[in-house]
Amino acid sequence: xxxxxxxxxxxxxxxxxxxxxxxxxxxxxxxxxxxxxxxxxxxxxxxxxxxxxxxxxxxxxxxxxxxxxxxxxxxxxxxxxxxxxxxxxxxxxxxxxxxxxxxxxxxxxxxxxxxxxxxxxxxxxxxxxxxxxxxxxxxxxxxxxxxxxxxxxxxxxxxxxxxxxxxxxxxxxxxxxxxxxxxxxxxxxxxxxxxxxxxxxxxxxxxxxxxxxxxxxxxxxxxxxxxxxxxxxxxxxxxxxxxxxxxxxxxxxxxxxxxxxxxxxxxxxxxxxxxxxxxxxxxxxxxxxxxxxxxxxxxxxxxxxxxxxxxxxxxxxxxxxxxxxxxxxxxxxxxxxxxxxxxxxxxxxx
Length: 350
Known about the structure:
350 residues; mainly alpha; LETM1-like_RBD; LETM1/MDM38-like; LETM1 domain-containing protein 1
């Protein structure tokens, strides 16, 4: 009855709003306020559920991590690795463009490294991408890639420990060519006609044979031997060339072997120049200097940062004296500077 009277009263006021303006205004204000309160209440409810949904989405990964840790670990490896891989591909394309315009001389050390590693990475991962494009094969190829990352995936998908382990395994494989290469160098001693150079070089060979390393100045004094017989690239015997390819992890089945070796030597020299131009070894990160040492024939495992820098500085002294006709000296420097290095021997025989 009261409700009926209230409705009747409101109806009367609306019908006579011109006669009762104040009453009409008050009632209209009350109705609008009621609508605002109702709207605000609905908005609060929506905000509450929306916030809960957002929090659920944010914590969903943690829920999956808790319930399916191994699956999430695999997912994270592939998702992060793919992002890094795509990012490096984009950088690689920019480097290639820069290389075509300005040449190799203007590339930074990082760009030279990326230009070298990315070509191999693309060749390595291409079969995985090709097979995974076939319907339903991704259920097979990705688990295989996860369990055999060294052979089927690039370093973008490796953990920090895997990167170190795989680098050392590759380095150990290359070190197996050190002794045969040293024997080849030793065998050419009697073919040196210049007696002064022969005497100096015999001292270097004796130094390496006794378990130490020759002085950098003595090595540079014998650089003439690498411009012609017996140690220039065009003068090397087949076995000597084979072992030299081995320490740089270049396939012995590759055509134009001497050209490949020359290209590798020039790449190393350009990297050396770029590093020095950018401030030298002191400006390099741990990862960069470790890779640089391994690439030049020294195992960086257990080496201190200072000793790595010192060794690289010694390498640069030789590299700076190398010219196009003596690139063979740079290629033989892993033997001259690292043949008896303790980290190499430890890695080789463990």
